[in-house]
User: What shape does this take?
Amino acid sequence: MIRLSFRRARARGFSQVLSCEMMERRRLLCGLPHDLLPAAPEFDWGIEAAEAARLAAENPGEGGPEAVSIVWTNRGQITDNFAAVFGTMANQARAVVDAAIDDWERVITNWNRSDGTTTLQVTILVAGTGYGGSAIPAATAPADGKPRTGSIILGAGEPANFPDPNDSNGWYIDPTPTDSAEFPAIINAFAGRGDTSLG
Assistant: This one.
């Protein structure tokens, strides 16, 4: 990408000077086609009741972190497609998604829904190619406009470049996704420098 800028330079006798400089390359890491997304699940009141009871037992009388649940409704089922994509690494890949869900549950402290429900129920699928993802809420919004279900798709990596049916397809599948030991130098909230000794 090139940024173009114009400036006046009367002292040198030029009416305008065109200067060009290279900008860093940007890559969009999302935007898989929505037609690949699985259907959002129907809201399951049984899941809601079980999760509300679990949260109440773990955090009696408290709000704050762990006051809501994000429930992966098709986890471990054939419809999540993890086994087809990652083979024997499927459970390790699922654990990475579980860790991300746990992190979001610590960040979101209340859905602020009119009915007081505490779960977001989602279907997650790994499919297509590339390393991006996409997500949408259920097609029909609830009366308060706050989604209770949705669907997420994650790219399947580059299977053509990684022919082993039991590998990561180019994704980094962290064997210990709940710790960040492989990123010893945290630069800011969005970047860290990895430990090159880990290969």
Q: What stands out?
A: Residues 1-11, 23-29 have pLDDT under 50 and may be disordered.
